[in-house]
Specification:
two-stranded antiparallel sheet, 14% strand, globular, 6 helices
Length: 174
Amino acid sequence: MLLLGITQSSLKKISHSCNIPICTGEDIFLAENFEPLMACGGVSVVHPDILTVGGAMEMKKLGDMCEKYGIAMAIHMAESPIACMAAVHAAAAVQNVLAVEFHSSDTPWWNDIAIGIDKPLIKNGFIDVPNTPGLGISELNEEAIAEHIHKKYNGVWESTEQWDNEWANDRIWS
């Protein structure tokens, strides 16, 4: 397997040559593609993204695989409140989770775009798993979404068909 120019054997060599934990995986698709890295000892912590790995069930499969190999998981999450709550729910179903990454602490309106999310979202370093149906989001706040859409985009909910045939040539799993 090739990871952005780094082979599985290279990661194994690096991880066996130092005492710094090796973490990778935010762009790896499907739990099965993490297994060679775990089996050879090339990774100490897997770093899957719920949107890239293949969803909540794949995240759970990967969590079970981490249990098998004694590997920790730190969930990558640099997306919307919807993806964040999906990652939080997935983390609650997995045993070896170290953390759920969060990039929006300096964006005051971030959790305004989804109604039903706790404010503040993070309390004492933790996010509560909602006990309401679904992800705990009752609806989207379309006014807040429209207010904060990036200036280079003309409007909200426009077609994304230009991405239908896009291919990322920098990764074999994209």
